[in-house]
Amino acid sequence: MSNLGSSVSSAEVKPAALSSTSKHSEETSVERDYKVDWLRCAPFFAMHFVCLAVIWVGWSWTAVGVAAFLYFARMFAITGFYHRYFSHKTFKTSRVMQFFLALAGATCVQRGALWWAAHHRGHHLHSDEEDDVHSPHQHTFMWSHMLWITSPQNFETDLKAIPDLAKYPELRFLDDHDVFVPVLLAFAMLGLGYGLNFYFPSLGTSGWQMVIWGFFISSTVLFHATCTINSLSHLFGNRRFNTKDHSRNNVFLAFLTLGEGWHNNHHFYPASVRQGFYWWEFDITYYLLWTMARLGLIWDLQPVPKRIYEKAVEHQKAA
């Protein structure tokens, strides 16, 4: 890797028009949109079924605590890194730190940063329109929530949508080998469980119990919590701004996803590092990014401009 210490731009990303080879397919739109590649997605569905192994491995406060910690830590990796950095470039960092942000996100079992950012930029470009692959207003609820990820038309990473990121070979490597990091995490959980069982048997955990709770259950809950922003936050909540889509602010989802629930705010002005525009709008992702900035790990956090607050007041008076 060259220029490892160079700064990566935080300019507001304007997504390129997303290429779509499926538009040239002879399939009908319904057949194309709702096709599931069951064979390729078998590991995805297996991740859900393996959670049932909790019946055999049982539970312990240690295993549940590790699962909860990994849920919140990895949710921050999704919200702060995959979303607010890679998708929207709401702050700057060095190339070395950029790689570690992508590495942290790769533990979430939500594919690589390039794939994630390309799809999310497409969502903003076509939000709740026909080309929005996970809009609950264009598809069934289950498709918008999770099944869209199983369709062959959504497997590939559209590099044309992320030219600012695709130029980094280390990010391309993580994207091309997105299974590698989650497998390492699963083995790390196995080793942690065996280690705790050997040195601290009073904790009542084991290797496989830690794998089930720390990897499978935590990852599955993390996946569905993330997906609520695609589905539920376009159906339930309040609308501060009259955006062209159906995005809504939802306080419950904001707590569940560390601040992503302020979705209507975000769709009105996605270039801001904070999505809770006001102090009473809980946005722990912003607080953690602010802390990282104070430590010098990231910088140039993009604020909510004064004109956006003025627009909020105008919309409130017009309501």
Structure summarized in a few sentences:
The chain has 319 residues and is an all-alpha fold.
Q: Mind explaining what this structure looks like?
A:
The protein is globular, with a radius of gyration of 20 Å. Helix 4 (61-87) runs parallel beside helix 11 and helix 10 (180-199) crosses helix 11. It has a domain at 40-237. A three-stranded antiparallel sheet has the order 1-2-3. The N and C termini lie far apart (52 Å). The chain has helices at residues 29-33, 42-50, 54-57, 61-87, 95-106, 113-125, 141-145, 163-166, 169-176, 180-199, 207-227, 251-256, 263-268, 284-294, 306-318; strands at residues 7-8, 92-94, 298-299. The chain has 319 residues and is mainly alpha-helical.
State the helicity in percent bands.
40-55%
**Which value, in Å, is the CA radius of gyration?**
20 Å
Tally of contiguous helical segments: 15
Oligomeric state as shown: single chain
Q: Which range does the strand content fall in?
A: under 5%
Helix/strand order, N-terminal first: EHHHHEHHHHHHHHHHEH
Q: What structural class do helix, strand and pairing data support?
A: mainly alpha
Q: Please tell me what the overall shape is.
A: globular
How is the biggest beta sheet arranged?
3 strands, antiparallel
